[in-house]
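Objective 1b of the project was to move from sequence-level analysis to a structural picture of ligand recognition. The entry below was assembled by the postdoctoral researcher (A.K.) and checked by the PI before modelling. It contains the amino acid sequence of the target and the SMILES of the bound compound, 2-oxoglutaric acid.
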Amino acid sequence: MTITNSENTRQPFNFLHGHLVTKNFLSVQDCEKIRELGLAKDIKPGLVNHLDSAKESEVRKNKICWLYEDDTTEWLFDKLQNTASLVNDRFFNFNINCFEPLQFTMYDTSGDHYGFHTDLDCNLVEDDQRKLSFIIQLTDENEYKGCDVEFLLDPRGPKTKLATRQQGSLIIFSSLAYHRVTPLLEGTRISLVGWIRGRPFR
Ligand SMILES: O=C(O)CCC(=O)C(=O)O
Ligand SMILES: [Fe+2]
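Corresponding predicted holo structure:
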């Protein structure tokens, strides 16, 4: 398995805005299997907890459902766990301990998007928080236009880094990193998004 630093430099990995990619993390058949699991569920508009619904659609317009760890997904959680722990040991060294359920995310209406955000939970009350985030591209990149995943490289400027669109790729980044999904222009894009939690930063 090859893990590639998005910056592709000899510099140390920038854990704040960099991201890591494992191409062909999942086969096309695996992607299809997950697509079927998700599409069999009730897929509803995604929410940003602290906003009213008008503001909501400015920030985020997509549909989601949740995939929990069970007999049908155990293989996937195991695979993710192995890779995440390798990546964490090598690049982040965060204190991490558990996965959240996986978010099956669908952009199927022109204009669906997710504006710049970090994945950290606001108003933290739990005794652990999101440390690592990941995205798996479940759709063949030729089946949709737009809907690019981009990372903000510098909070002061507009410079962004496009993440791979290749189907089956796993993209891993710090939950502190600003990222977005640009508006869908055509077709349907499905992603699988997840978070790994650990003791709060301090
Ligand atoms: O759909 C994606 O690729 C990313 C979605 C996202 O950033 C999120 O749900 O936090
Ligand atoms: Fe996100």
